[in-house]
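TEACHING EXERCISE
Course module: macromolecular assemblies
Task: Read the component lines below, then compare them to the predicted structure of the full complex.
Student: A.B.
Group: 4
Components provided:
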Amino acid sequence: MTTQSPLRATPGALSRQGAGDQVFKWLMLTMALSVIALIFIIGCELAHGSGPALRKFGWRFLTGTDWDPVHERFGALPFIFGTVVSSVIALGIAVPLSIATAVCLTELAPQWLRQALSLFIELLAAVPSVILGLWGIFVMVPWLRQSMFPWLRGALGFLPLFQGPIYGVSLLAGGIIIAIMIVPIITSVSREVLRSVPGLQREAAYALGATRWEVTRIAVLSYARKGLFGAVILGLGRALGETMAVTMVIGNRPEIAASLFAPGYTLASVVANEFTETPPGVNLEALFEIGLVLLGITLLVNALARLLLATFSGPALSTS
Amino acid sequence: MRSITITWCLCGCLWAAQCGALGQMLINGAGATFPYPLYAKWFDEYAKVDPSVRFNYASIGSGGGQKQILEQTVDFGASDSPMSDANLAKAPGRILHIPTVAGAVAVTYNLPGSPRLKLDGTTLAGIYLGKITQWNDRRLLALNPGVSLPGSDIVVVHRSDGSGTSHIFTDYLSSASKEWETRVGRNTSVKWPAGLGAKGNEGVSGWVKQLPGAIGYVELAYVQENRLPSAQIKNAAGAFIAPSLESVTEAMAAATIPDDFRFSMANPPGERAYPISGATWLLVYERQKDPLKGRKLVEFLDWASTKGEAMAPALDYAPLPDILRARILERIKTIRY
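Instructor-supplied answer key:
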């Protein structure tokens, strides 16, 4: 791996290294390793906390659709479904929006507008989750229920995705609120990635007679593809774990419905909802196991994303 | 650099002075969020009665309160539901349940003109089971003669977070409907057969206010604050009773309360008793490890059950009836230290 090379000093350099360099090297190494250790410890703690439930339910925990604390039957599938679907909706909305904004900020907008826009995007990132949730309950959901969803049902009602009764609180509402929360992070990272595309790339494309759109598409976006993908993954990580605002608008019903208008439930939400009032026992262990599943899904999705990136970005793209 | 060191030293000294130098004893508690406003008031007032103790209460939820008293990381726990036999068996010593106050759960709804509805247990269970789905269902019409009910769908709203309020409500439905008891049961969170989950009392009252045709259940204070209508519920004696502090105290006086004070107030027999209410408990070990701390804790419990009770109604909690209070005071005397 090339990333390790700064830590491995060549024999010639070693003689010139002082004690300070050694300390620096080990300090940095410890810091870097502590991140890995932290994830490992969290995983162990969750596995330990969910121990008896893990043994009792086995794989049925992942495939079961029942969540019944009274009769102690636990299945996480509706929560997994809700988490994945709401995150996919969020990415579907946030990715085009964020990347378009980032292109606008780096390629198209005049200088004064870039600064103003950047400021607002960073402000959006600073809005606390619970505030967004309240806004969701009192502003977004009534609007969705009265205007947006009836219109969607009228226009796309032939799809099972947009059928059924409209409450406002729904998987779709959860997805939209997550989208709002991950737009700032995807936009900021994408902007930095696009900014780091060398000017020479653009100039070369212009020299070949490309239009502005062609320059952006060929010289900028495809050059920055890997970095943009990284930005999306960061957003996805946040989407999977987002809790408070989602809990407030998703409806909190653990069921798997075809319609996006139906209420749903996410892994993070059920932990936040039930953890504080659950007495010690198998119910609490099941909640720990939900945490373990969430950690597992996050790691799995990240690994898959990396695999995807490695396959579709061939050697032609890794010129950097 | 030096000024920073001095500042730190000063901070340290101040902290030490706070905790030790004054000889102030710190008693730690954790648990239920529902009675927290009252407990905070109690600790505040009690500091004037006995300045030598300071209470530190973390309102982390009933589950956390039970866990921490079991693990002995706190001096007292607090819970909105009594501990299960299984968890009591895990405890290193005998844990006493000390009831402090009770609260009513009001059934609220969003209907045109906000008529005063009358409901009974089987109808309410039918609605929450998803069997009664229209407001003009004949069972609702029969209970409410003269009230014009619309033909719209009933939107059922329940708590999504585990809560003592849900425990009280499902406890009542279980006592009123056999089907509810076997299919759903009573707990701080259950598998709801129908409806939407909203977070917290404020979430439920928020949805009910917004969604036409909605029905939900919240703590009494929330219907009063939000000016929401509340239904009169038919009690065991056959009378329709509106939720209020008095009708809850009546319910507690009418409920059969066993010697370990782990009781349910669902559907008690009293004529004026409101049927959907529940108590909240402090959890303490019968045998205290630290003699001095134990004595201070007993003094506080004694004060809370007498003087403290008088502060409850102002904060929307129903105080204990006198008969029960006398029994509790007797029990507090049995704590050994």
